[in-house]
């Protein structure tokens, strides 16, 4: 009897020991196993509830793009006026500069005024801007007044101003030239076999009588030619007779040649050039 009790007791102790050892091995295998983790089970644990689970509007939650439109309205049309004033004199010129805007309804506005000393052969450049408050065709005028000679030069342009929604700025360049420079090239050829002295002069006649603008006495060699450039600046436009007179001081003979010029206002940028070619003497065959 005692032996059976001991045997049963040992049997139960053995089963208990095996059960404890078996559970420890399974735990160790679970801890040190190289098998991958079940991602589905992991996600089921760590993922937060989605919008459907929370009862939110999924369509509204995914809108993250905005359509942007910028509107730009220019109420007035702005003009940038670049003005060029060129002094062709070889001395300083004091001028009053004015820029005027004349609207198509007859109203006139002085938008810029300045007193300036223009240096010889230099160009003065300045910029004026104006915002038109009326649509249609308008006139812009640049005036340059020589305060010493009391001579006024002016130029103008016409603009068409669209409504206030135009995106570009109107631009007009003015070029004013104070005085018109003429380069007169004179050719005098001596047709004699001897050296001779000649006196010559240049005359301008605007209808009120000739005025001398140049004179000189030169010695021209036999069959030689004399060439000289004579600059002259017209202050007032109009029509002129330009006369070249040559005097043979020894033979007391006079030769002359002339041409006819129309001089425009001071704002043209072309140079009027006239060549004189006069043959002094006659050739006999």
In short:
The protein has two domains: about 75-180, Immunoglobulin-like (Sandwich), CATH 2.60.40; about 180-280, Immunoglobulin-like (Sandwich), CATH 2.60.40.
Secondary structure topology:
Blueprint lengths: L1 H31 L6 H8 L4 H4 L3 H4 L15 E11 L5 E10 L5 E11 L4 E10 L3 E11 L4 E11 L8 E9 L1 E11 L5 E10 L4 E11 L4 E10 L3 E11 L4 E11 L8 E9 L5
Parallel strand pairs: 1-7, 8-14
Antiparallel strand pairs: 1-4, 2-3, 2-5, 5-6, 8-11, 9-10, 9-12, 12-13
Would you give an account of this structure?
The protein has 4 helices and 14 strands. With 285 residues, the chain is α+β, with helices and mostly antiparallel strands. The chain folds into 2 domains: 77-178, Immunoglobulin-like (Sandwich), CATH 2.60.40; 181-280, Immunoglobulin-like (Sandwich), CATH 2.60.40. The N and C termini lie far apart (182 Å).
